[in-house]
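Help wanted!
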Amino acid sequence: MRPDVLETLVSLAKRRGFIFQSSEIYGGTGSVWDYGPLGVELKNNVKARWWNAMVRERDDVEGLDAAILMHPKVWEASGHVSGFSDPLVDCKACKARFRADKLADAQCPRKPSKKPGEHTDCQLTEPRQFNLMFKTFMGPVEDSAAVVYLRPETAQGIFVNFLNVQQATRQKVPFGIAQIGKAFRNEITPGNFTFRTREFEQMEMQFFVEPGTDMEHFERWKQARLDWHLALGLDRDRLEFHQHGEKELAHYARAAFDINFDFGGSLGFQEIEGVHNRSDFDLTQHQQFSTKKLEYVDQAANKRYVPYVIETSVGADRVTLAIMVNALREEAVPGEQEGRTVMGFHPALAPIKAGVFPLTKKDGQPEMAERLAAALRKKFNVFYDEAGAIGRRYRRQDEAGTPFGITIDGDSTANNDVTIRFRDNMGQIRVGADKVVEVIAKYLEADHKTADSALVG
Ligand code: ATP
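Answered by r_m:
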């Protein structure tokens, strides 16, 4: 079993400004998290890569940004009002609450080595259904006619805009619509840091296809999505497909696979993305509830039909957590007593691309370093640091996951060159100051496993 790194990660995330607990000075809000200066850059990089791969690099997927608040009937049509619930059990003895279908993953608060129900004092109630949607009121009157929901998934904003997008863009089936946005679920048992939270971001794509061609598209998307995770640098042996069996399969789904990632420790392999064949369920439901036709007219073939939908749904926060877990390593440094902590992010995902360090605060070094940092900032996120021992400064950037350290020393001002130090193997190369942007850009484009000093011929 891989070691449990979540605890180390939670403290590093706070110390270095990746992730803070929400409203911490008030004692925190249950399972809601804030992204700090490094975290927001990391998550934005993840979202940008998804958007590029899913929308910009394809001519058969269009982007959308639908509102969080929707007509309440949307959630009746989608089945969320009646069915988006988890079975909840209470323990009368210790007052703890659990998801009845996840008891095997839970701990008895009185005896953490046991599962709820296994300890002699446990008094579990019968399960009752608890709806996970957050309710609020639209307008000044707080009555049942004004109830709206915070969306529990972004997908419905895509379904209700299917014809708007198709007609505006004149896309032909098969084509997709993608969006990134917040979703809210009043989870019974949130936890494991940002793995399961009550407010999170989803990156979802619905691909509309002709019935009968759905399984072929499903297989293609399954593979494309696994490849996307691999290209982020997630280790192959930490990823697996999990197929939903009959019991797990949602009533509307024809097939569903999760992409699971090994978070290590007791959490182990868990879902980070779902790839689903949703049939024509959603569009048919919205047709019925809205009484508006949601058919696609295939003029060339002279036929009309309600398309089937292949959905890919990934949590931006959950995949960011997977990237952090995958990246974190604590290792010995040859010839040094103290080891180091490294966030070995793919350079393209790293919140800061380069640290710029004058070796000393004299002899024109800070001036040259500041000039270089200013030039680099036009292209990349750069951190300038002139305080403390150089080894210390490198270590701080190793923890932030910064792939390149650029040092200006006594020779730099005379020769107009600098040292680039590589985070992963700590190798160094000497390059002309005017070549730095070019060299770093080359490494950012390269596969990250080769983005080290060994590349330099
Ligand atoms: P679970 O069974 O774990 O509750 P789910 O199967 O309901 O999850 P989906 O509705 O398929 O999840 O959501 C798609 C993706 O959204 C998930 O793979 C995950 O990455 C993300 N996600 C879902 N719920 C949460 C949450 N509470 N916190 C963070 N991310 C979430």
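OP: Thanks! One thing I noticed: Residues 453-457 have pLDDT under 50 and may be disordered.
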